[in-house]
Design brief:
heterotrimer, A mainly alpha, B alpha/beta, C mainly alpha, A: mainly alpha, 11 helices, about 75% helix, C: mainly alpha, two-stranded antiparallel ribbon, 15 helices, globular
Chain lengths: ~280, ~240, ~325
Amino acid sequence: MTWVDAVIQGLLLGGLYAQYAIGLSLMFGVMRIVNIAHGDLVILLALIGISVSAAFGLGPGFIMLLMIPLGALIGWGLQRGILNHLVGNDPLPSLIATFGLSLALQNLMLTIWQADTRSLDAGALAIQSIDLGGIHVGVLPLGIVAVAALLTWGLHVVLKTTRFGRALRASAADKDAATLSGIDTKIVYAKATAIAVAILGIAAVFQAARTTVSPADGGAQLIYAFEAVIIGGMGSIWGAFAGGLILGVAQVVGSRIDPGWGILAGHLVFLLVLAWRPQGIMSRR
Amino acid sequence: MSASPLLTARALCAGYGDFQALFSIDFDIQPGEVVALIGANGAGKSTLLKTFVGLVPIRDGSLTFCGLDVSKTPAHALVSRGLALVPEGRRLFRGMTAEDNLRVAADHAGQPAAGTRPWTLERLYDLFPILAERRAQAVEDLSGGQQQMVAIGRALMTQPKLLLCDEISLGLSPKVIAEIYDMLPVIRQAGTAIVLVEQDVSLASRSSDRVYCMLEGRITLSGRSSEVTRDEITQAYFGVKHDLG
Amino acid sequence: MTASTILVHRHTLSSRIAITVALLLLAAIPTMPFWASSGQIRLIIELSCLIAIAQMWNLLAGYGGMVSVGQQAFIGAGGYSLFVLSVYAGLNPFWSVPLAMILPALLAAPSYLLLRKLDGPYFAIGTWVLAEVFRLVTGNLQVVNAGSGMTLRAMGQFTAHQREIGLTILCALLLLITVGGTFLMLRSRLGLAMTAMRDDPVSAASQGVNVGRMRFGIYVVAAMGTGLAGAIYYMAQLRISPSSGFDPYWSSICIFIVMVGGIGRLEGPIVGALLYFTATRLFGHYGASYMIVLGLLTLLIALFSPGGLWGLFGKLRDWPWFPVGHRLEYRQRGDA
């Protein structure tokens, strides 16, 4: 029973990782860029959300409505101001630029919010749970997984059926040919990054409501998002979702074995997938 | 000749990085005309087409399309003005269906020229019936000829006034080449001018009104396809007796 | 008539001066315990380690095309090797230093084989995960005192003066091996292949360069050099812990130094390390604000001057310190 519980708690934790992973997977799929500041942006949005909530007495739902457009705006600016100048075959420039951004952001947050851990008061929602045959399932974590699934499904539908989705897939497949079809790839890229960071706005509020955040946490969030993407399979958004859940299960089961080994267990599952199935578990190849 | 050419290049120079590929190119095409561009490998034909559509930066000279200067217009904006390129090697969007490849172009199309019927999926499927059958298949699963049809169709869906075709016969069987070339008069009748880059010189001459020959980044010959002689073409193509003119 | 000859040579006046000065400086380091203060010696040890670690990152990213944000994996592995060899095998710490390169090499080989499956930027994040794995494993291993870290008690058998002599000799050797070794390697036929690979891996492969094997070799060699520097650095510290030895901040330093100094050039990491070292002495006390500036500077360099300071300088003056290519000189001789 404890192991069933561990798996369920792991799936619930994984919902958050899935939310981080969607944007990372989207950006890599379209531009072959990894934004090293991805995790720092989650923390930044979470800290802004916490401060705004405290200053104006707003609830988490309202904060989320603010953080989504703010995330989109940050993503748009990041792409237009920085990343669009660095998209190319060489991964080095964009990695270095976002690495510098990550270092600057982390320390900026440290200056503003100090090294304390903070969280968002989600009220009753934070402690509500439902009883599934003896296993307590938190309502908030369940909501996080549901939102992650909804986001993944929504993005899938957008990619498959909309004009923007087609432009995105075309730009990902062949940038020059997309240009020749009349697509302004720089705008498409900016929209993709805006979506990726807007999703982080959602994830940030959930993260802050579910656990705590502090300025130095960004690196770990980036690593979890990355592991989720690789476990699930590069270039597949459903893969990123599944990878997030698997990572969550690995971490919770690992920590039940030995509290010091939780995060390590997640890394080990990632390494095992890399060794035995580098194309990811969701890939058909 | 009509008073207003569709596309005009004057003393056009272009290149990548430190490498200049085109030297003082003069080029015209009238609405509804078919012009062939021939020359050996590396003569600069593909570069010239890419320069026309804005993929290679222009260093000097002028380029006008529909009477407007387009030498600084970004490539994606030229598409909606009616300039389309079928790139060498087709460059389809892998992982997408044939129909989605066509839809991408339709999504970003400009206005068709006044008095012409716009290209639609239905009209395209009439032109290439096999594509209607294969519309839901991923493009990488189509045959080479079918892929080329998608590439041409994709360009047509942008409602071009001028269609640039870069080696559309490359790697295809003679039967498929004939099938594709048979479609060019249909496209032309619809009001679209065509520039053909073609390795097969006699096919190029037969299919065009006029011909330009390139050598080492320069235009070495231009004239009506029916009037230029094989000898002139050979000279312009290989540069034999180049200096004697 | 004039006859012309083309002379091929490698060195310039600037490189002769630079190499002579560099060798003199290297030779001077081991004499420091006899004339310099302990504080000065500590600074030189730190600077030497920074140059060595940065040069190894430059080898990896600038020539191997492998961006790593996880070089701390090998700094920690080198450092811990030294401590374990000294504490458990009872070896003389100074003699353990060269042995401290073994573990980084043994870890680097399978690491590369796993990571090479990751595409471009994902490779970089993969190196970070591995470094985290090493940190977490070390932090859970009772043998190495888990999270609280180890102390190099064996150094107590030496006087402060003896320690300084040993460490300065090691630093001179470290620089000779990492900077000098990279210099010689780049000048060899191997270096030609590496430069070709840096400029264009695809066409280098088509010219018969076995890119996969080269990268494997570079990854392992860079890990060994980094491990050596880690061993010397933590020997001077006398203490190591998982959170310091495997600190991701090491990667930030590498990236800053190499990018600001100039990637893909031997001079770059040296210029960058001197700049970082000086800047940290001057502005380090601003803490987080200083780090914000470092981060923004890295970002700006990536955007506007990918060749770094050395690249900018190279546009003004062609004064290489460590030329690895050949120069052609065209001389016309009048028929006197």
